[in-house]
Amino acid sequence: MSGTRETVYRVYCLWNSACGVIKGSSSIASQSLKSWVSTSTLTRPTLISLQCGNDSNWEQANALANSIREKRSAASNRKHNPKDFVNHNSTRHYSTARSIEKNANDVENQESTNEGKPEMQSSKVPSSRLSRLYHYGSLAANVGVNVAAQSLQEVAKGKSPNWKSLILSDSNIDKITKKFSKMRGAALKIGQMMSFQDENVLPRELYEILSRVQNSANYMPQRQLDRVLSRELGSEWRSKFKRFENIPIAAASIGQVHEAELLNGEKVVVKVQYPGVKESIDSDLSNMLMLLTASSLLPKGLFLDKTIENARRELKWECDYIREANAMKKFGELIKDDPVFEVPKVYDELTTESVLTMQRMEGTEIMKLPSTINQELRNFLGDNVMRLCLQEIATFKFMQTDPNWANFLYNDKTKKIELLDFGAARPYSEKFITNYRKLLTYASKSDYNGVYEISKELGFLNGLESKMMADAHVESITTLCEVFRGEPNVIYSFKDQTVSDRIREKIGLMLNERLCPPPDEVYSLHRKFSGVFLLCTRLNADVHCAKYFQEIFAYK
């Protein structure tokens, strides 16, 4: 009987959450209708265009025409510019979650070898409040109805339904992934950010959604792209380029990337932000928080509300391309004397809050280098990426925090590592950096009391935790810092490291026992730190971790 009551209660919670999102949609629709009634007949067409901004009939009718234009454009590119657009799978000139094939025939030829790989599609970005709320409302209603119906059917059969399995059924996973890919913005970004969580933290089915979302985003049709660029660069924006590729080479959560050539012949990439994404961040995240909280899919130790709040801040940073351009310039200054790293040049005259034009880099993604690269190059890459990460924290107090490995390119001609994507770059306060350096220094010396006390000062612990939780926290940090122990001449091999596995064993306990969320700063810092650690592991690199830690990072 208690199982039945729990099921009914869970169904009620999810349905109530779905109703909340639908109610929000209805409220906005009501406001829009009142505005329409109160306006004159002359201004109503314009008002409707602004309010709805997402004509699905036009979108469907235009899909075939778009595909034909795209294939023609791709064919034209092959005919007239054979050297400019080759090997996009291995060479990166931009930063994104997903590459788009420009050659339609190549896509067809790859179907047999890339089965299951999601096909990129062109679809209009829902840009108005009403259209975005409609999509959230329909998703909430569809998933909620499916779960409620299946749960009650299980109860009627005398079975105890598996709540998470019902929410994350195959049909619901497909609905969620497709909707997030169409919506872009906050929904897609949250999925990509959470996809970097350890697989032991999240349910397997939710991991499937996140992995699909991480590599999935539709791109704007030509009509919408023209509208955005005309608004940002002027109606004659094409005259500012010698060549501009209509079909993007990449599409991610915030915007899409196009290859272009300036009038003076310089090759650039142009990042164009999806319309309405910036304005919808707050409402999108509020809707997601409501649904994720009601579904009870995530462990309480993730402190979802704090995670969402940090995502909100980072998303607003990433939607300001002028901020990103300034971050690129600042980082360029910080590494100007470094012989290994390079940052793209920014073209201010073709950059706005929603359009970012930068130098096209010629390197290849580190993780897409041939598997046959020698150990010397593996060590060079791992050594310098680790060095830079420690410098960003201890010396620069300014970090490019995106953990995506695709943001590190290796240029074999210049022998340099090229850095991309500074949308989430951020500074850290002197106080935080000092305490964080103390934390890792104590951990590198296996100083339990030192780690415990500074963890309370930083906000990782509040002092009321159980002994098991305190031990797990301290042990996980001291385990992580094993790589930094030893004499400066000691080289750490990431090939057979077991640090990740030993930390992973403590995750479940810490999620269940944690009493307070970690400090705001570490959400981004630890994502980057983890990304660098895993990159070195993937490279099987031998790294001078102790040397760099003592020279750059250790608190003295």
Automatic annotation (TrEMBL):
Span of the signal peptide: none
> Do you know which InterPro entries this protein is assigned to?
ABC1_dom, ADCK3_dom, Atypical_kinase_ADCK, Kinase-like_dom_sf
Query: Which BP terms in the Gene Ontology apply to this protein?
Result: ubiquinone biosynthetic process
Segments of skewed composition (Polar residues)? 87-98, 106-127
Q: Which GO terms describe its cellular component?
A: mitochondrial matrix
Q: Using the UniProt annotation, give all residue ranges assigned to the region (Disordered).
A: 71-127
One GO MF annotation is: ATP binding
The record's similarity note reads: Belongs to the protein kinase superfamily. ADCK protein kinase family.
Q: What PANTHER family does the database record attribute to this sequence?
A: COENZYME Q8, PTHR43851
Stated name of the protein: ABC1 atypical kinase-like domain-containing protein
What is the originating organism of this protein? Vanderwaltozyma polyspora (strain ATCC 22028 / DSM 70294 / BCRC 21397 / CBS 2163 / NBRC 10782 / NRRL Y-8283 / UCD 57-17) (Kluyveromyces polysporus)
Q: What is the lineage of its organism?
A: Eukaryota, Fungi, Dikarya, Ascomycota, Saccharomycotina
